[in-house]
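anyone seen this seq b4? input:
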Amino acid sequence: MRAAVHTAVNEPMTIEEIADPHPKAGEVAIDVLSCGACHSDLHVLKGELPFPTPAVLGHEVAGVISEVGPEVSGVRVGDRVVTSFIMPCGRCAQCTRGNSEICLEFFAHNRAKGLLYDGQTRLFRPGGEPVWMYSMGGLAERSVTPATSVYRVPDEVELADVASVGCSTMTAYGALRHAADVRVGDAVAVVAAGGVGSSLIQLAARFGASMIVAVDIADDKLEAARKLGATHTVNSSDVDAPEAIRELTGGRGVDVAFEALGSTATFRVARDSVVEGGQVVVVGIAPKGSVGEFDLATIARRKLQIKGSYGAKPQRDMPVLLDMVARGQLRPQDAVSRRFGFDEVQDAYDALNRREIQGRAVIDIA
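predicted toks r here
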């Protein structure tokens, strides 16, 4: 099969012919239709998130199951599916407590070493050299993943529309529902209106937020944010964003501010934009070593809540999100601004690095 292989930090990915992967027990193989271009992949390409090479990145996969390994039930060959970027093992202490979004095996095996849960990769070059997997290695014609990360797409939903549900949408849902528990009437700010930020805006509107303030440094992204449901926008390169947010809220600040990029600057905006007793939810994945500062006395006096959110609970929440899509309550395709062919995969990430992508870019593999 063809795969986009990441060989070295800050070097372009190359399309290579590597061996077709096959599933083992508890796994399925997917013929990939499309894969979203996520900022966390970009962090790996730039060396901001350490990961072994050579590797195949990509974790927002939509495709069709082409092979099922032993001990798999609930899905079969021919099913149209999307994947969750978190691949719960279902057995570790966190999974059994209901915290599958922080599965211990996922972080120990996959994120640390590029392996699946038997301690091996499923990807190899023709000569037998291993190729490591970032999640399921979705930037390839065929992908293998644990069946715990695979979800059927309703018949009435276009498969090409939903690749991003498994990462940007699921990440946003986890932040809104589980970390912040946003309620009807809450005022929220979304700091950075990129892929995850766009999903936060869409879902906050579905959750009944009374005010959704999108903050970014690019006017085109802010215009797109309004179309997705933002009630107000703030260009933080033109004004003091926390001050502008307080003006919009009558001096009080928002109930919840979501930091959706992973940077010191955007964390500062989120931190300084919330009301007393408000929540600052860090969603963006920052480069290793990034530090966000806060004054301990201010946290105590203003009763601020600073939370981290890595994603939703896949087995509980992915069916909910796909049902929302089927009902027309959520349109992930509206956040997709550009589509690239497989041979243009590096172009997609270069455009993402130049901040040229509004919402999400998708690479069409097949």
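The chain has two domains: 2-168+312-364, 181-308. The radius of gyration is 20 Å. kinda curious what u guys think
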